[in-house]
Amino acid sequence: MVCDMPADGWVVLTYRVPPEPTRHRVGLWRRLKGMGAVYLQSGVCALPRTPDHVRQLKMIENEIAEAGGESVLLLTTALDRAQEEKVIARFKADRDEEYEEFLDKCADFVGEIAKETAARHFTYAELEENDVDLKKLQGWLEKIRRLDFYGAPLATQADERLRSCEAVLDAYAQRVFEVHAEDSDG
User: Fold this and answer.
1) pTM (predicted TM-score)
2) pLDDT per residue over 62-113, tens digit each?
3) What are the E-state strand segments in the chain?
4) Are residues 111 and 172 in the same domain?
5) 77, 100, 119: which is the final residue of a domain?
């Protein structure tokens, strides 16, 4: 699901925080990345211009001041379409990095089920563990989607891979149920 972002630009936060304690700087970076912000350069990040992003960045601006730092919030638009595409490409690249990591974890998930299948570990405990892992993958992809403001290229592949993981787990679950039904009958 791609968010429909307005074409009226971005909200840009420029900031400086004291180097110590580092927890302020690291915490700030994590929060901004967690919102889907892209860094245009050190201490300068952007988010699509929405009321929610403006509100969140105003709260962050206050936290920066409380930590002894300085910040400025700006509303901006690109000079031309080429500049706009550069910024949008940064957002897409950041999301694609997250989708790449997600795709790797999906491959690990499928590999784990293949290993359990080859070893004939058809237990409810193993099924439950894999079900928990699938739920983590589903939540992770949903989080990435919420931050995919401009439709990163790997979004479709990530959706397909998650469906594949769901199908693999369904097949494994069916095998677990069959094995336990056979044990009950025998």
Assistant:
1) 0.87
2) 999 999 999 999 999 999 999 999 999 999 999 999 999 999 999 999 999 9
3) 10-16, 38-41, 44-48, 70-76
4) yes
5) 77
